[in-house]
Amino acid sequence: MTPAAAARPATPATKQIAAEFLARFGRAAAGVWSAPGRVNLIGEHTDYNAGFALPFAIGQRTYVAAAPRTDGRMSVASDAFDDAVEVSVDELATLFPQATGPGEAAQVPEWAAYPLGVAWALMALAPAGTAFTGYDLLFTSEVPLGAGLSSSAALESATAVALDELWGLSLDRRTLARAGQRAENEAVGAPTGIMDQTATLLGAADHGVLIDCRDLSTTLVPLNFANEDLQLLVIDTRVRHAHASGGYGERRASCELGAATLALASLRELTVDGLAAAETALDDTTYRRVRHVVTENHRVEETVRVLGEQGPRAIGALMTASHVSLRDDFEVSVPELDLAVDAAVAAGALGARMTGGGFGGAAIALVDAAQAETVAQAVRAAFSAAGFAEPNLFAVVPADGALREQ
Ligand code: ADP
Ligand code: MG
């Protein structure tokens, strides 16, 4: 049932979820798994355009504790929500028939559609004859929900590695990433790409994950932030977005329209040199959406090149250029994100940008470790002067992807 895994030393977080599991279910968890949130260093809204992205997994993680049941039922509970959900495993196989659009997919409370959607997607991938034992699953997360750090992928990937092992599937990490994306697209109804699941499943300490979303190949890229005395600050604006019902689907549709009008398989086929010709073929809004994607792909490639040739201190300008493109061409920023970026750069950050899908969430700033507090204070002061709610600032470090903890 639970094959031996390299047990890691217990941490306060794993001890806590094991204790919560015992208190809630009256029996010990058979295992604890975790998956990280992620920060996208650069390459935004490129994943669903078959482009490049360079995210990294962060130290903040979502944990799941699990123990088998004997009644063929599966339950999911989270300390972030009051409503636990229980279904029979047989029912699960047909719980999410076909999503037809945002909000129409979930037969269960939205949060539960993420883990149950992963279970559902894994069942479809399992070899014939697999015995689908039911489990109690309990989740807790250090990743702020809806802040653009992909608590959704952390939840999906923690579920995926746990059930992959518990059901004895041994699927590779790319397949688990696709199962997570399928859960998000079809069980939750959010038309997101595969970047987040890939980062949370394939991330490694001190590395970014360069993803070529055309063939889903990945390359680990050394970031060397700590070696260069750099810190990556997250500025969570506390403005919350709603992917499933927000402007994400609209932007995605614009990109699809742009590619179709230009008779391209995807916007990946278009290069910066081809933009002038594209401008005459597209309406102004579609053109600006396309220009963002094309220039952003170029910025990701440049970031990888500059990291290799000059190191992380030299990538700041590319980060800030990415923000300007997301703000002006893709129009997914909000005043709080713009202020976070402007204030951080004015206070000495090497570069800053919104990260994640936009419409709220978090910005990131690359700062000299010695200046991190100065930059943080400047951002807080700017938010206060603008009458915005106080942002939540914290540092993140590139960390390992999903794994078994206990
Ligand atoms: P992000 O991925 O940027 O945090 P999303 O809107 O994509 O934002 O995903 C957030 C949603 O994912 C939450 O509203 C909730 O439904 C679900 N979720 C994430 N983490 C948890 C958790 N630990 N427990 C329960 N649900 C969670
Ligand atoms: Mg998400």
UniProtKB/TrEMBL annotation:
GO molecular function, one term: galactokinase activity
Record domain GHMP kinase C-terminal: where: 310-384
EC numbers on record: 2.7.1.6
UniProt GO cellular component terms: cytosol
Keywords for this protein: ATP-binding, Carbohydrate metabolism, Cytoplasm, Galactose metabolism, Kinase, Magnesium, Metal-binding, Nucleotide-binding, Transferase
Enzyme class: transferase
Keyword presence, Kinase: yes
Family to which this protein belongs: Belongs to the GHMP kinase family. GalK subfamily.
Protein name according to UniProt: Galactokinase
Protein source organism: Leucobacter exalbidus
